[in-house]
Design brief:
Residues 30-49 are annotated as: Disordered. By secondary structure, this protein is of the alpha/beta class. It has helices at residues 70-84, 100-112, 125-137, 163-180, 198-212, 228-241, 253-266, 280-288, 303-315, 344-347; strands spanning 58-63, 89-93, 117-120, 142-145, 157-160, 188-192, 220-223, 247-250, 272-277, 293-298, 331-333, 338-339. The chain has two domains: 12-19 and 52-162 and 301-335, Rossmann fold; 163-298, Response regulator (Rossmann fold, 3-Layer(aba) Sandwich), CATH 3.40.50.2300. Helix content is 36%, strand content 15%.
Length: 354
């Protein structure tokens, strides 16, 4: 997500790094055969040992916005659950808040307590940048979660989803399906989150770019503010304005509850819809096949679990045992996966409740 407030809104199961396997050792304990003269040995992975094996005790500070919707609530839950997996981790969360100044004060309290590492999802990356830099300058590495700080000196590692990739995934699903059906000049609607946010603009740009591959474009788009109520209102307006629709992409599964309610109320089903983020609610609808929702593209809060795993490794001075490098990467972008009825059972355990 961009540094601005609002939302993300990835699934990690098919991401660049899987949640469960992110810090697990992937190298064999069997001795490698001696290399032949013709084939020199490949460099050995970083000698970090099993990443999940107990190590030096570390204190991980954690700060995130208040849980005013399902995705953010899942961020905190996933972070806490990941920390509990390790006997060598003390998890020290501060009170979640949507007040910039309160979050700054909370992070300053973690700095004063001299925690070993801080995982932070800032309400606003720009406005929280200075306190993140303060932590880094105090010798406390920061794992920047999702909404990125503009100053790379303010964080050790960033991990987050791919907003542009969400749009690309949605665009390819819709474009291919309409092309395969032989639809020409389709009516394609887009329901955004908050239109002014860079993250939303990235999603829309990815969607637009992917649709171009099929010779299609967005007919109309409107933002729904990431809320159920606005989702209902915006969807109702779009349904009234378009007597025939071929496809809808809704950026966010939380607001999608309202979107689907409006569609049901209007008794419309001549089109199909793709959601965004990967909520359990959306996945159950896809699995049941009882609505126009056919797919969702992921931006999963399980990234918070991965952030905790990365923070632990950084604080313990370890690299990732399935990589050659001796240190955790500086940046990890999770891929946006497309969930359909064919693979929904695989992803459902990772869904969040809206």
């Amino acid at each position: 997500m961009a540094q601005n407030p609002g939302r993300r809104g990835f699934l990690v199961g098919g991401a660049v790094l899987g949640v469960g396997a992110l810090a697990a050792a992937c190298t064999s304990n069997e001795p490698a055969p001696a290399p032949s003269a013709a084939a020199p040995a490949a460099p050995a992975p970083a000698a970090t040992g099993g990443n999940d094996a107990p190590g030096t005790k570390v204190v991980i500070g954690f700060s995130a916005p208040a849980a005013d919707h399902g995705w953010i609530a899942a961020i905190a839950k996933n972070a806490e659950a990941a920390a509990k997996q390790y006997s060598d981790v003390e998890f020290k969360p501060v009170e979640p808040t949507n007040d910039i100044n309160v979050q700054i004060s909370a992070v300053e309290s973690l700095i004063a307590q001299k925690v070993n590492v801080i995982v932070m999802l800032p309400n606003d990356g720009q406005q929280l940048n200075q306190v993140a830099r303060q932590a880094t300058d105090a010798g406390i590495p920061v794992v920047n979660l999702d909404r990125i700080f503009p100053d790379k000196l303010s964080y050790r590692t960033w991990i987050g989803g791919d907003n542009y990739g969400m749009g690309v995934a949605a665009g390819h699903y819709i474009g291919k399906k309409l092309k395969d059906k032989g639809v020409s000049n389709p009516v394609i609607l887009e329901i955004q989150g908050i239109a002014t946010l860079p993250l939303t603009q990235d999603r829309s740009k990815g969607f637009e770019d992917a649709l171009k591959n099929y010779g299609f474009s967005v007919t109309a788009k409107q933002d729904a503010q990431f809320t159920v109520e606005s989702g209902t209102e915006v969807a109702s307006n779009l349904l009234q304005a378009h007597s025939k629709i071929d496809a809808i992409w809704n950026h966010d599964d939380d607001q999608g509850i309202g979107v689907l309610a409006a569609i049901k109320e209007a008794n419309r089903n001549e089109f199909f819809m793709v959601g965004g983020a990967g909520s359990a609610n959306a996945m159950r609808d896809i699995q049941a096949g009882s609505s126009v929702l056919e797919a969702t593209v992921t931006y999963s809060p399980t990234m918070a679990s991965s952030a905790i795993k990365l923070a632990r490794l950084i604080a313990q001075g370890k690299g990732m045992s399935d990589l050659l490098e001796h240190q955790v990467p500086q940046s990890i972008t999770l891929a946006s996966e497309t969930i359909t009825k064919d693979n929904v059972a695989e992803y459902l355990p990772l869904g969040f409740e809206s």
